[in-house]
Design a protein that fits this description.
Layout (H helix, E strand, L loop, with lengths): L1 H8 L1 E3 L3 H4 L35 H6 L2 H4 L8 E3 H21 L7 H14 L1 H7 L5 H8 L7 H11 L5 E7 L7 E7 L8 H4 L3 H20 L4 H21 L15 E3 H7 L5 H8 L6 E4 L2 H13 L2 H15 L7 H16 L7 H12 L1 H12 L2 H24 L5 H13 L1 E5 L17 H17 L21 E3 L4 E5 L14 H6 L1 H11 L20 H19 L2 E2 L2 E2 L6 H25 L13 H11 L3 E3 L1 H10 L5 H9 L3 H6 L18
Parallel strand pairs: 4-6, 7-9
Antiparallel strand pairs: 1-8, 2-12, 3-4, 5-6, 8-9, 10-11
Helix pairs in contact: 5-6, 5-18, 5-19, 6-18, 8-16, 9-14, 11-12, 11-17, 12-15, 12-16, 18-19, 20-21, 20-24, 20-26, 24-26, 26-29, 27-29
This protein binds zinc ion.
Zinc ion binds next to strand 1, helix 24 and helix 26.
């Protein structure tokens, strides 16, 4: 949990489709399928019968669904998914080799190999049944008073169980050099507060299914039918009360809304019946006198919810959250199946669970990210790739410098500050310079459950130990095989793990036009995050500090409103996009593509590339650039996933990320001969950066 608060506040991911939906669980494997890298420009994906000036996404990606239908074990199919599956095959081969019980293995190879082998031993997991879970259930059964809750919730912080609250560490928004303690809202089983509160047939259906699911889990834990049903209803009431006092996802995007430093006694005063000292000391965190209470209203409300709920209901809620938070892989099959039935089938429309090896590869990546990640980098990321990626980032930063200089709406004073911030952005490319030490983490071959909990506790303790310490700016927050990139406002850095620096997004041997269209967009996107509605509130050192003149700030908001309105016109099924929730990502997409375009032109001029000459594929370099960009977003999503993303995710669904940007870029229309007034070349365009 400890990093969750930070993730909510600071990490503005470029494409969460892979990271957000981690929980699909394993049973009958679908037909074996292998994944190969997709070329930077894949003409077979294109629907050349479509008019590029009417719908460029259709032109660039019209055949995606036919060629890459959604697999039965996934909520979607897109470029990110394809690359993730490819990377997972690579990791699979590494882990199968590491799993051989060979005494000559190095310490980290033994750890990843034994973790993976234990996870794969499904027979052993099933044979143990409920036994590994029993000590956890005994802890709950042993509660005789609500006064004992802080100790139990402290234990839950360590093993990542999401009941009631989160407690951990974070970089201080206002003093980016130090790490502070944080308490944050938590404890909901549905994806977001609105799932409890929205009206409408679809939401009512999901809530009904959810209550049934909670009851099914409680029955599998031994409750009678009647008891499970009444407990599930009471749990729904409890969670709905927590949802009412929770901060919504859109409001969480403003860092001021989730930053309330206070003396620890003030937090104690907010929650009179909850003894925080018992929680702190049980986690073993370093001592501290001040804490960021991210959402004070939540804690006032939580205190009341605990006071008004009887102990048996709280115990039922804890049992439910325990099983809900623990990965299905290490639980008895019936629990695993039930978890998938709601989280996979009902919430995301996925018919089938992933095969076990895929889940175990992911679990190993979560548990030992820098042990497995090192092996991945050795295998998959040559020095030439890193050098090329670094050079591209420098080109894009230089383009941003020129872009800021050219803005007609910004004063010279704010421009200077913006450029100062730009020049301070640090680049993390490929892999960390220093790898994490896992010598204190015990992995026992044959103990899948214990390995999982020990790995969670190892990471939680590592996070908690940071409280009061200086921030380590060299640390990596994501594993190297991750197919994603992000900007971190507190660090003022952009992060490109080796996992995303792969085809189709990046290939050191393909034409520059394609690299700048694909990964160049992501690089521009992450840099622009430093200057979106959230990022612009932090200075170059990562401090939450306003460096804008009032007039320029107002102008920024007017420019941004154009994007809010544009994306609010898009809808999936019966759900409209939330233009405010997606503003940061849409700003980054629009700014990012402009920077990729500018950087490519500069690079092409330097290298003497003839921009009028068509390649063998029939396209000019600039056309290739836009095709590469659009093919980043080739995708097909299940309607359930589209709805989930539209209501909870700061990213717009893939297909809007292509056309939504290009309509604002007249250079695109020119490259494809579009006339002003055609759908892809409207007279009115939005531009922030
Ligand atoms: Zn982003």
């Amino acid at each position: 949990m400890s990093s969750t608060t930070k993730a909510v506040a600071l990490l503005l991911f470029l494409a969460c489709a892979g990271t957000l939906f981690a929980q699909t669980t394993g049973a009958p494997p679908s037909a074996p399928q292998t994944y190969s890298p997709i070329p930077g420009l894949d003409k077979s994906l294109m629907d050349t019968t479509a008019d590029p000036c009417a719908d460029f996404y259709q032109y660039a990606c019209g055949n995606w669904s036919k060629l890459h239908p959604i697999p039965s074990d996934s909520p979607y199919s897109d470029q990110f998914y394809n690359l993730e599956q490819y990377n997972r095959q690579v990791l699979h081969a590494i882990l199968e080799k590491a799993a051989a019980d060979d005494p000559s293995r190095g310490a980290n190879t033994r750890k990843i190999g034994d973790y993976y082998a234990s996870c794969m031993d499904e027979a052993a997991v099933q044979q143990k049944g409920m036994a590994p879970l029993q000590p956890e259930l005994d802890r709950i059964n042993g509660l005789t008073s609500k006064d004992q809750l802080p100790e139990l919730l402290a234990h839950y912080q360590l093993i990542n169980v999401n009941a009631f609250l989160g407690f951990g560490s974070q970089q201080d928004f206002k003093d980016a050099t130090r790490t502070i303690a944080v308490a944050a809202q938590n404890g909901l089983g549905l994806p977001e507060k609105d799932y409890y509160l929205r009206t409408g047939a679809k939401d009512e259906e999901i809530r009904k299914q959810y209550v049934q699911h909670v009851a099914n889990i409680l029955k599998l834990l031994g409750s009678s039918e009647t008891q499970a049903a009444s407990d599930a209803a009471a749990i729904m009431k409890l969670e709905t009360a927590l949802a009412k006092v929770s901060l919504d996802v859109t409001s969480q995007r403003d860092p001021h809304n989730i930053y309330h430093m206070m003396p620890v006694k003030d937090l104690q005063a907010l929650t009179s019946t909850f003894n925080w000292n018992h929680l702190y000391s049980t986690t073993g965190s370093p001592a501290f006198t001040e804490i960021n209470v991210a959402e004070p209203e939540f804690f006032k409300g939580m205190n009341q919810v605990i006071a008004e709920t009887d102990l048996p209901t709280i115990k039922a809620y804890l049992r439910w959250q325990l099983v809900s938070s623990i990965g299905g892989l290490i639980l008895p099959k019936a629990l695993d199946e039930e978890k998938f039935d709601f989280g996979g089938r009902k919430l995301m429309g996925v018919p089938e669970q992933q095969t076990r090896w895929k889940r175990c590869v992911r679990s190993t990546d979560n548990a030992l990210p820098e042990a497995l990640g090192k092996a991945y980098v050795d295998h998959q990321f040559p020095a030439a790739s890193k050098a090329k990626a670094v050079q591209m980032i420098h080109d894009i930063e230089a383009a941003m410098d020129r872009d800021i200089e050219s803005l007609d709406w910004m004063s010279a004073a704010t421009k200077t500050r913006a450029q100062e911030k730009l020049h301070l952005i640090a680049n993390k490319v490929g892999y960390p310079d220093k790898w994490r030490d896992y010598s204190m983490l015990e992995i026992v071959r044959g103990d899948a459950f214990g390995n999982n909990l020990r790995a969670a506790e190892f990471e939680s303790r590592r996070q908690l130990a940071k409280i009061g310490k200086p921030v380590d700016r060299q640390e990596w927050l994501t594993s190297t095989p991750t197919v994603n990139a992000f900007y971190d406002a507190g660090m003022n850095d952009i992060n490109f793990p080796a996992g995303v620096l792969q085809p189709a997004f990046f290939d050191a041997t393909q034409p520059d036009a394609l690299n700048y269209g694909h990964i160049g967009l992501f690089m521009g996107h992450e840099i622009t995050h430093g200057f979106d509605d959230t990022g612009r509130q932090f200075d170059g050192h990562g401090n939450l500090q306003d460096w804008w003149t009032k007039e320029d700030g107002d102008k920024f908001n007017q420019k941004a409103q154009c994007l809010v309105d544009e994306y609010a016109q898009f809808s999936v099924g019966d759900t409209r996009l939330n233009g405010k929730l997606t503003l940061g990502e849409n700003t980054a997409d629009n700014g990012g593509m402009r920077l990729a375009y500018m950087a490519f032109l500069a690079r092409a001029a330097q290298d003497g590339v003839d921009l009028n000459r068509k390649s063998a594929d029939g396209y000019t370099p600039v056309q290739q650039l836009f095709l590469g960009f659009a093919q980043d977003w080739c995708s097909e999503w299940r309607p359930e996933l589209e709805r989930l993303v539209a209501t909870t995710d700061p990213h717009s669904p893939d297909r809007f990320r292509a056309n939504g940007v290009l309509v604002n870029l007249p250079e695109f229309g020119k490259a494809f001969g579009c006339k002003v007034g055609q759908p892809m070349a409207p007279a009115k365009a939005c531009r922030v950066w």
